[in-house]
Amino acid sequence: xxxxxxxxxxxxxxxxxxxxxxxxSISSKDDDAIIGVAKHIAKLDDIEIRYVExxxxxxIDTNMPLVDEENAYWLIEGLTIMGQNGIPLEPTELSxxxxxxxxxxxxxxx
Length: 110
Hints:
By secondary structure, the protein is mainly beta. It has helices at residues 6-13, 91-94, and strands at residues 2-5, 19-29, 33-44, 47-58, 65-77, 79-82. The strands form two sheets. A four-stranded antiparallel beta sheet has the order 2-3-4-5, with no helix packed on it. Strands 1-6 form a two-stranded parallel ribbon. A hairpin with a 2-residue loop joins β3 (33-44) and β4 (47-58). It is elongated and about 50 Å long. It starts with a strand and ends in a 16-residue tail after the last helix.
C-alpha cells in the first residue's frame, strides 16, 4: 500500500485517468418497496475510492429512492493518506476533498 500526503492526494484526485463504475445490490424487494446498497467506485491503477450508500425506494408513493445519509460512507483501498501530524487520515476526514462526481449515483436501475 502506498503512503502519500494530503497535497499529493489532491493532485491525484485532479488526474483525468480515474475510471468510474457503479454497482448496487438489492437486499429486499416486494410490491411496496426496494431496499439496497449502491456504490460508486473510482479506480486509478491499484487505488480504489468507494462511496457507499443505503437506499429505500417506496414503489407506491414516490418511486424515488430515499438515501440514508447517516449510513453513507467512504472507503479507500491501496492508499494511506498521512496528516501533517504523521497520523493516517480516515476516509471520512477526506470526503470534502473528493470530487463531487465520486459520490454521484444513478438510480435509474430501480
